[in-house]
Amino acid sequence: MAYENEISKRKTFAIISHPDAGKTTLTEKFLLFGGQIQTAGAVKSNKITKTAASDFMEIEKQRGISVATSVMTFPYKGKWVNILDTPGHKDFAEDTYRTLTAVDSVILVIDCVKGVEEQTERLMEVCRMRKTPVIVFINKMDRDGKDPYELLEEVEEKLNIKVHPMSWPINGGRDFKGVYLLADQSLNLFESSKTKKADDVIAIQGLDDERLDKMLNERDSAKLREDAELVDGVYGALNKQDYLDADVAPVFFGSALNNFGVQELLDTFVELAPNPLARPTNARDVAPEEAKFTGFVFKIHANLDPRHRDRIAFLRVCSGRFERGKPYSHTRLEKNFKFANPYLFLADSKEVMDNAYPGDVVGLYDTGNFKIGDTLTEGEKLQFKGIPSFSPEIFKELINLDPMKSKQLEKGIQQLTDEGLASLFIQEPGSRKFVGTVGELQFEVLQYRLEHEYGAKCRFEPRAIHKACWMSGPAADLADFMKYRSNNIAYDKDQNPVFLAETAFILRMAQEKYESIVFHTTSEFKVEG
Ligand code: G4P
Fold it and tell me: Domain 279-377: what homologous superfamily?
């Protein structure tokens, strides 16, 4: 119970969106409101416009100098807000999934012109699986977009979550006048400005207030009264528990670029969003209030200076207090480690820290001891769960082009896949290496980094593999299946056998023949249910 005060201040979340919906802009505006940056344009977009490895590396290099952009921390209204950044490029979606394991809630940005897009649907699936509370921000209201009712319906249908509008827009596009805040019965009138820091929110006495007619024209005030009454009648007051249970998503309308509607979003977020939550391990659930420290690594960021192969492992503190210089047990390696210079990330810098609390993210210098999902404790043997690998979409075989550099290639591919850049499946005998990714860009990045950082030349040859499936079932049946399909069995990073099914048809046939075996497309099927 020693750290309850600290825990109750922490709000750790991620902003997620389909590329271009406005995630970077919104993040920046949050930092502006949090007083962390003074001007817009300070947050570098991690968007990759051209899908070339060199572009990616260039961006990563810039970001690598200040890996701080991976986590941004700032105090706001007595709370301590931790924003975890997620990659903008769809080929790096798995990185985003993993980051979602380290947050307690998310803000989902939707472009009002485009509505719910493909990547948003996928990201929401992960949130749903983990029951992560979601607040929706419908952005770009200064542009002619879809009708708000239509947008809400689309969110409910495509994202499979009930919505609860917190504000209601008055027109949209060139005619956008602002929003009506339903709970406060206030008007927030729109003014196009990229620099202003606060909205002029006007408290009115409900929809009957005559000032409404003065501030809006007759048509707009009549339409607002009609809409707001309807919306209020349908939704009523927000039940906070429904949001915390991830059954209902509060929805705001605004324009991040114009700093409009951002303040009310942030204020509601710090009020509503959950504090650090308990997290499952292979032994028991760990509550944040527990006195002893625990945490897990959810991201590893390479140091892009090729002369140093050290990396930064991002650790989410789950319980107790993390202290600089104190030895902690790395449960997978069964070894103790001390960290002389752990980092805390501020908006645009990183600082050596002495203590961190549940919800915080600590940057640890790593010389190759960490893999994604690794757990640190004060000695208890437990391993955090819920950081599954997902079946990749594209599979290729790694071909060594320089036999003199086999060792370097071996080491390189192990380390880069430990970072989570791609999934590695090794087949024995012969040590054939199949690499799986979500997108083509990752292969280019792997090839580039293997050559530039490890001096190893390689090629990736496409392999017709539909899915990587982890398996569960009676041991005898599994052994029989693995013998029968030995050409298609490989082992993942944790030495679990995986069936590399060539086609959906072959997978179906295998399932029919071996009814007792369940084929899973994520490595943690128990969590998936
Ligand atoms: P992302 O991180 O989700 O990929 O999106 P990002 O914030 O980079 O925004 C994508 C584009 O949308 C940017 O324009 C940004 O200025 C614009 N944008 C963000 N919020 C709003 C908004 O409320 N209204 C309007 N009209 N546009 C918005 P860009 O031209 O791609 O980049 P830039 O040259 O403006 O930086």
Answer: P-loop containing nucleotide triphosphate hydrolases (3.40.50.300)
State how far the Cα of 468 lies from the Cα of 489, in Å rounded to an integer.
9
Report the first-to-last Cα separation within the chain, whole angstroms: 32
CA distance 458 to 455: 10
Rounded Cα–Cα distance for residues 492 and 335 (Å): 23
Q: Are strands 432-437 and 423-427 parallel, antiparallel or unpaired?
A: antiparallel
Q: Do domains 2-272 and 394-528 have the same CATH topology?
A: no
Domain residue ranges in the chain = 2-272, 279-377, 394-528
Tell how far the Cα of 47 is from the centroid of ligand 1, in angstroms.
11
Ligand 1 centroid vs 161 CA: distance in angstroms? 26
Q: pLDDT digit string (tens) for 311-326?
A: 889 999 999 999 999 9
Q: Which helix (H) or strand (E) holds 165?
A: strand 162-165
Q: At the fourth CATH level, which superfamily is domain 2-272?
A: P-loop containing nucleotide triphosphate hydrolases (3.40.50.300)
| Distance from Cα 271 to the centre of ligand 1, integer Å | 27
The CATH number of the domain covering residues in 394-528: 3.30.70.3280
Ligand 1, from 18, 20, 45, 142: best to mutate by most atoms within 8 Å of Cβ? 20
- Residues with CB under 6 Å of ligand 1 are 17, 19-25, 45, 47, 88, 139-140, 142-143, 255-258
DSSP readout, 393-426?
A: SEEEEEEES-GGGHHHHHHHHHHHHHTTSSEEEE
* Cα of 139 from ligand 1 centre, angstroms: 10
- The per-residue pLDDT for range 156-215, each reduced to its tens digit, is 999 999 999 999 999 999 889 899 998 888 888 887 666 666 666 676 777 888 888 888
Looking at the whole model, is its pTM more than 0.90?
Answer: no
State the distance from the centre of ligand 1 to the C-alpha of 140, rounded, in angstroms: 8
Q: Whose alpha carbon is nearest atom 15 of ligand 1?
A: 22
